[in-house]
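Task: encode each sequence below as structure tokens.

Item 1
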Amino acid sequence: MNVTIAVIDSGVDVKHPELANSVADSFDALGSKEGPHVHGTGIAGAIVAHARLMGSAPEARIAGDPRIRRGDRSGAESTSYVILKGLDYAAEHGAQIINMSFAGPKDPLIERGDRRDRRAVAS
């Protein structure tokens, strides 16, 4: 309750009935014109769903939706710079928890940014 969570992913359908009044706003770090994606929407739903389904934290608030990757049939991808923009956005918007459900090789830039954002969010 009263927890702000950032879902850094592929975009969230803020009009989905399971997410009603749970998503504060959206930020597209890619600057794309893509609509919401099922993966980002599903992750947000797993956290804050509260209609027919029940998420793990239904009374939490999603602090924006930093879209950091494109999602299409060939797979989703992003860059370190775009992910860091998403982390900055999350920290600036009061996220106490940041969810990033994606994989990839070890990235020293993301590790440094993650540590910086943890300090910013904790302060």
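Item 2
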Amino acid sequence: MRLVTFKKDGADAIGALDLETRTIIDFSKAAPDLPATMLGLIELGNSGLVEAEKAVKSANNNALIRLVDVMLKAPIPVPRRDVIAVGRNYHDHAKEFHNSGFDATAGATAVPDDPIIFTKATTSVSGPFDPIPSYLDYSNSTDYEGELAVIIGKQGRGISKADAFDYVYGYSISNDVTARSLQHQHKQWFIGKSLDGFCPMGPALLTTDEAGHPDTFHLKTEVNGEARQDSSCSALIFDIPTLIKTISAGITLLPGDIIITGTPLGVGIGFDPPLFLKSGDVVRVTIDPIGTIENTVE
């Protein structure tokens, strides 16, 4: 299923998106006993998905909403804790970032020996079509990073690579927007990565049963219609099971946790001179089969 959070009558609601009919099955009408939030649904695990699937199959016209009549939000608009992010996780981008002069933590080699983990504040999360507020970046060095987001489905610690996918609920798209000069200035990446609205996500949460294996996914980022990033999601240096094993070794992962997995070659600092985003630019990140997010820079 393509699960979505949307604004209806001034309040958030959740449902399932039907791409063929461009309609949303509103769970508040089709399955009123289900939780009203995506986090609540995820916490129910498989039983919640079973009830959601029943609602989709039995929904009448009263539960259908046209997609054009609502505003989609990030699937999890307010995560319970910071987004967990991964740096330098594609070989070509690792070299690109290492050579850019913006990596204040660069070592002798571009490709890291172990996953580089940082976080983005919950308030950085924004909707799939919300503007990117680059005016909050006083350094005027705002850059894009199209990334695959992994949504955790159940609690776990000490998760093995062999069991890792059992803990994945689904996938979404993110843009790890970054203030590069702030990222460099503060050494730790949190401030440069966490400005309000600097993590657009969506347009849906594609559940694992429909998504297939993430190695089959393909990511493409465009700025003003120009292709900048184009890569298979199978090209990760540290794959999803490795990331889950690494993070969960001593940290309990919780239902609804979000892991964004790194960006491929083609970000703005890879150009000479760097191509930072400016007001009016339009950034599109597409991951097949999940969909597209599109955000205009303000």
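Check on item 2: The two ends are 33 Å apart (CA to CA). The chain has a mean pLDDT of 96.
End of task.
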